[in-house]
Amino acid sequence: MDALSVLLQNVHLFETKYYRLNGAGNWSYSLTRQDTILFYLVMSGSFCIDVGNGVRKAHAGDIIMIPSAHSHTSYALNHHSNDAEPLDERLINCKGNALDIHGDGDQSSSLILIECKYDKEMIRPLLSVLPSMLPEINNESDGRFEVIDVEIRLLTLEAEHERMGKTAIINHWASIMMIECLRVYIESLPEATDNWLKAMKDPFLTKALVAMHEAPSQSWTIHKLAEVAGMSRSSFAQRFKEVVGIPPLTYLMDYRLRLAARYLRLQQNSISRISELVGYASDSTFSQAFKRVYGVSPKAYRQQHQQQILA
To answer: Which of helix, strand or coil describes residue 220?
Structure first.
C-alpha cells in the first residue's frame, strides 16, 4: 500500500450532505461551517469564492475543495457584494436539496455543494498543512482527472433523481474527491517546500511511513525503520526530521495516540485492548502517554465523548 492510502485509511467522512445551488443574476451568499470539509462542483456557468485570503474563480467542470475554512463567500462572476445573503438557515430548511439564489442581472450558474464531517483527531496533521482551497480541477484540460469525470456524471445523476442508496453514493463520492484532490496537490508540491506531505513522494520515507501506519503496535526503533526505508540509521533519522519536521518516533507516538483516541471514541474495545493495538507494553504506560497529550486519562476521555453523544 502507498503512503497516502495508509495515511487516509482511518480518515472517514460522514454526515455528508449535498445541495444543488442555482444562481441567477448578480447573486451572492455567505456560508459558515465548523469542522467541515466542503466541495464545490460547478455544473454550469462560473462563480467566485473567497475564503478570506484571496479569491478563486471557478468555471463549469471545475471542482474546489475547502478543507477547513470557517466561513466563505461565493458570488457571481465579476460581482462582489458586501451584503452577501447568509445561507446557513436556508440550507437547513430547503426542500429537495435544491436552492435558488437570485440577484439583479442575467448571469446564471449551477453548483453542487457537498459538506462532510470528519474525525478531527485523525485528519488534524493533514489539515494543518493544506491550503485554504485546493486548486480547481478542470476535467477538459488534464487527462489525469478521468476518474473525476466519471464521478461527476454519477453525481449529476444522483442529484437529479431520488434513488435508494443515494447517501452512500454521496459519501463514497466525497471520499474519492478528497483523495483525488489531495494526491493532485501532493504531486504538485515543489521540492523546495517545508510541507511534510512531501514525504509522500519520497521513495525512502514512504516505506517507513507505510510500515508505521500498517503496524503501529510493532516495537519500532530508528534502526528497524531505517532498514525498512533502505537507509542508514543516521541518514534516515536526519532525512525524516528534515522532511516531516519531527523525529520518526515522535511521529509514531503522535499517530499511535490519535489512533487510540479514535478507538476510544468508537467504544468497541477495552482500554487494555486499545493499549495493545497501538503498541504500548502496559496499560499504565499507555494511560500516562495519553494523559500527557490529551490532558485526561483514556477512561475519562471515553466517558467525555460518550456524554457529548448523549447530550
So the answer is: coil
